[in-house]
Design goal:
The protein is an alpha/beta fold. It has helices at about 10-20, 45-50, 70-80, 90-105, and strands at about 1-5, 25-30, 40-45, 65, 85, 115-120, 125-130, 130, 135, 145-149. It has two domains: about 1-105, Response regulator (Rossmann fold, 3-Layer(aba) Sandwich), CATH 3.40.50.2300; about 115-149, no CATH class. It has four helices and ten strands, in the order βαββαβαβαβββββ. The strands form three sheets. The protein has a five-stranded parallel beta sheet with strand order 2-1-3-4-5, with helices on both faces. Helix 3 (about 70-80) links the parallel strand 4 and strand 5.
Length: about 150
Amino acid sequence: MDTVQLSLHNIALASRLEKELKQLPGSQVMLVKTPDLLGNGIIILDEETLDRLPMPLADPQRFVLVTRNETPKLKRAWEQGIVSVMFEHDPPHTVCLATQAALLRLQNPHRNSPRCVITPKGAITAPLIERTAAGPAAPASTGLKNQVI
């Protein structure tokens, strides 16, 4: 069963999201004042909750941030590695969609495999496969390295 911790200061929004999220099959939704960072599952939070968490975030892909559509807030989320950001006025089903995407990311068996990453500073880090005389080395070999492009 997937756990979804909902930590929002807007009580009306939290209630609407809780009602919508409880319709997800196989999910346990909990309204919490302070999210349990050691627990499993997804954490849906707002800026106030985010401000109280220790930085850097461990596993930022498990967070869904609900915030205002303002550049500094979006930049901050990006710099912390949060990939799911929703706006306060988005319909609840849109937040559910972001939650389902976050749950799928956590369930992905390849989640820790090398991948292309664009950093907030604009650099791109991508896996590099060394070439050998016989052609490219297999990704499972020791020839896989990260390269900043």
